[in-house]
Amino acid sequence: MNCAKFAPLSLLIFPVLALMSSMASAQSAISGQVKDTSGGTMPGVTVEAASSALIEKSRIATTSGDGRYAIIDVRPGIYTMTFTIEGFTTVKQQVEVPSSVTVPVDAEMKVGSVRETITVEPTVATVDLQNVAHPETLSRNEMDSAPTARNLQSVGSYVPGVRLNIPDVGGTQQTQQTYITTHGNPAHNNVILLDGMLINTTQSEGQVQTYLDNEMIQEATYFTSNNPVDTTGGGVLTYIVPKDGGNDFHGPSSAPTSLRNLWARTSTRT
């Protein structure tokens, strides 16, 4: 009898978990094509993307028959791209990957020793040519320098196509449920993801939002059109990347000596 009682609940929970897992995978990608100096495509090239943003520190892919590769589900950060194949010089290039975009990184390799390394500096800003959605990403520096209130909604109002439902002068409306809208979509169609986790509340069909400390955000990406199919609404999709933490404990220098000693002992434990 208990199994029969919980069966409908399990049928409801599993689709929700599947949706949340698909949202969590909505990260960035790096893709491109490798050619030789004559313009011919190069299959079999080993492509490594290394970054401290990755838990495993690096991802490796191999170019296909037409010289193309793709490294998916990468976290935002600075990546060092390394292209290697026997009989050709190694090519390295550093690229910055924002959230929720596909960054194109192509390479041109010339005949030479694998011990030779050519470092390529990107000369133009990377443009996502593979996705129809072109979101706006605001870095921590941009959010700090914007003449606006320090909350997610007021900062987002600086994105083209996004507006506030009521004016928020100096952040005075933060506790009064200020909403952002786009293309006439009501606020309950907005979706907010914190590091891939849906943080919309269940109150008023998700319209009542969760308050966040803006200082915890490293960067925020706002979608106003062509939202991914795994989102639950067609309003503003906000993807938040929180600041990375560390394993060291920190506290004020004025803390009692006994407490600072405790922090020091704890931070040295493995």
Task: Describe the structure concisely for a colleague.
With 270 residues, the chain is of the alpha/beta class. Helix content is 17%, strand content 29%.
Task: Give a written overview of the molecule.
The chain is of the alpha/beta class and 270 residues long. The chain has helices spanning 2-24, 140-145, 152-156, 257-267, and strands spanning 28-36, 46-50, 58-62, 68-74, 77-84, 90-97, 102-104, 107-109, 117-120, 136-139, 163-164, 180-181, 191-194, 197-198, 217-223, 237-242. Residues 3-26 have low confidence and may be disordered. β13 (191-194) and β14 (197-198) form a beta hairpin. The chain is built from 4 helices and 16 strands.
Helix content percent band: 10-25%
Q: How many helix segments? A: 4
The helix/strand order is HEEEEEEEEEEHHEEEEEEH
Contiguous low-pLDDT stretches (5 residues minimum) are: 3-26
Mean pLDDT: 76
Strand content: 25-35%
Report Rg: 23 Å
Structural class category: alpha/beta
Count of DSSP strands: 16
Strand order of the largest sheet: 3-2-5-6-9
Q: How can the largest sheet be summarized?
A: 5 strands, mixed
Shape: elongated
- Cα-to-Cα separation, first versus last residue: 48 Å
